[in-house]
Amino acid sequence: LQRDAKGQYLFDLLCHHLNLLEKDYFGIRFVDPDKQRHWLEFTKSVVKQMRAQPPFTMCFRVKFYPTDPAALKEEITRYLVFLQIKRDLYHGRLLCKTSDAALLAAYILQAEIGDYDPGKHPEGYSSKFQFFPKHSEKLERKIAEIHKSELSGQTPATSELNFLRKAQTLETYGVDPHPCKDVSGNAAFLAFTPFGFVVLQGNKRVHFIKWNEVTKMKFEGKTFYLYVSQKEEKKIVLTYFAPTPEACKHLWKCGIENQAFYKLEKSSQVRTVSSSNLFFKGSRFRYSGRVAKEVMESSAKIKREPPEIHRAGLVPSRSCPSITHGPRLSSVPRTRRRAVHISIMEGLESLRDSAHSTPVRSASHGDAFAAPGRSGRAESSERVAVIADENYSPADSVLPTPVAEHSLELMLLSRQANGAPCSIEEEKESEAGTPAAAEVEEAGGELRALCPGAGGLGAAQAEQVNKFVLSVLRLLLVTVGLLFVLLLLLIVLTESDLDTAFFRDIRQTPEFEQFHYQYFCPLRRWFACKVRAVVSLLIDT
Fold it and tell me: Which Pfam families match (predicted)?
């Protein structure tokens, strides 16, 4: 990659490799050395955005979830969105009731292994697949039952389309959660969806704000503000606190981009947004790209032969490679569940430990999937909707982002592009470079990040003191500047011969005449006397 290559060049190269035309829904994400996630900005140099040393690990994924994924023009686009939502389901970002969970998993099963065949699929075959962070044998039996009786004859493309139609009806569709805290210190997850701004707290959706009701977003340090204007001139300000200033800035930029993409009619309406005010330097950001309406209009004009799709795996697999979330109620030996396929979307995205991500859940979902009412989106945003019986806590990978040896990495990327599965032996070889001690240290690092010690608290307090001092200095500078401007105006009024109407009116006021003769003239004589005295002293010496 050339040093001055822009993010747009890399993204276009990748989309050309994937034969993808409806590319505006996707993006490239990476993690900086401070474990904060970022979206690659297409207008800036790739190398300058990376604070780490090469080789760089970046991840291709959905950035803007389609409002209606089933309405996408090309099958290749629907397949990539299908892979992303399947991953969201696995990581707990997409929650649903038990019946919906079983149906979604059955669609995945039908898409990956085809029709049920008693000769190939023995009792308990669905337990070889990991669809959710945790599930029980009862849910596995329900998945197998639906797969056997209801989905026979569906092609992979049809199963994926039905999966997208079902997922799109869920309350947490398109949620890419940002962990924050509210003004009371309670944990919350903020997210931007195709339909608006969402706040998930506990097992409830406490806020849903439509995009046309969001008037402004800004951040100051770790504090994020959302200004909302609702019916009957009702205006509210939602305030949340991110873990770090970098996480808050990332949250703000994601909000600016999502609002521009889903709300605006055309990209020419995009404006540069600033978060600055009197006491904070702030940031300026501008969304670069087409908006949703333009993307849909452009997709309607696509006329080409549908590209060939190399679907990953017709083998027992997990939805994500090399992930273990604890024991499950299953009689299948662990060694039989090690087979992995690496797909285009899933091969390298195990971005964990970032300020944007969340810790792995220790509690099991079991059968506790709550039924979210889709009608909530059309109702008032004040209504609190229950999204799950348990707290919303999206899981993430236990393992760090894999960085393979050069030759192995090329081999895996080649297999990804062709959709070929990775064998058990190759998986073990790729995992050999991640010893158990490293995993323990990674887990310890995550716990230390979540529960900072005295040193971390001291650094945070020092950072707050520095920000306070800077704010005071800015206030002093602004005050001095205003006084200087007033002094210049006073000199112009009293000493200049300008006879404009504005100055003439001010000079003729009784207050100005009194100030001029009683205060200003004596002060000028005193100042002139002191200057003459100093000059005489200098001449004498």
Answer: FA (PF08736), FERM_C (PF09380), FERM_M (PF00373), FERM_N (PF09379)
Q: Hunting for tokens 């799709």 — which residue is that?
A: 309
Output the 3-class SS for 14-44.
Answer: HHHHHCCCCCCCEEEEEECCCCCEEECCCCC
Task: Identify the H or E element spanning 478.
Answer: helix 454-495
Compare 401 and 59 and report the one with higher pLDDT. 59
Burial label for 467, CB within 10 Å (0-12, 13-18, 19+), is: middle
**Strand partners for 60:** 28
Domain assignments of the chain as residue spans, ordered by start: 7-168, 176-301, 481-540
The token pair at 226 is 């959302």
Kindly report the three-state secondary structure assignment for every residue of 336-347: HHCCECCCCCCC
Q: How far apart are CA 103 and CA 149, in angstroms?
A: 12
| Per-residue confidence band for 391, with pLDDT thresholds at 50, 70 and 90 | low
Pair 22, 73: CB distance under 8 Å: yes
* Residue ranges in 121-267 assigned as alpha helix (H): 137-149, 156-167, 245-263
Q: At 537, which amino acid appears?
A: L
To which residue do tokens 């090469």 refer? Answer: 54
Cα of first residue to Cα of last residue in the chain, in angstroms, is: 70
Q: How many CA atoms lie within 13 A of 437 on its CB side?
A: 0
How confident is the prediction for the chain on average, in pLDDT? 76
CATH number corresponding to 176-301: 2.30.29.30
CATH number of 7-168, picked from 3.30.70.80, 1.20.80.10, 1.10.3730.10, 1.10.10.10: 1.20.80.10
pTM recorded for the entire structure: 0.65
The count of residues in the chain is 541
Whole-angstrom distance, CA of residue 37 vs CA of residue 352: 9
Q: Is 19 left (phi over 0), alpha (psi -120 to 50) or beta?
A: left
Contacts of 168 (CB under 8 A, 6+ apart): 68, 69, 70
CA distance 531 to 537: 10
Angle at 8 between CA 212 and CA 94, to 5 degrees: 50
Please tell me whether residue 227 adopts helix, strand or coil conformation.
Answer: strand
